[in-house]
Amino acid sequence: MFVTLTSHELVRSLIAGLAVWRKAWPKLSAKMRRRTDGMQYLYVPELTKAGSFHVHLITSCELKTRWYKDNARAAGLGHQAKAVVILSGVECGGYCTKYLTKAIALQGWPKYTRRVNRSQGWPRPPEPKTPYDWKTLGSDVLRARFSVSMYAQAGWTIETSLEELALPQPLAT
Question: Per DSSP, which regions of 25-167 are E strands?
Answer without folding.
Answer: 41-47, 53-59, 81-84, 117-118
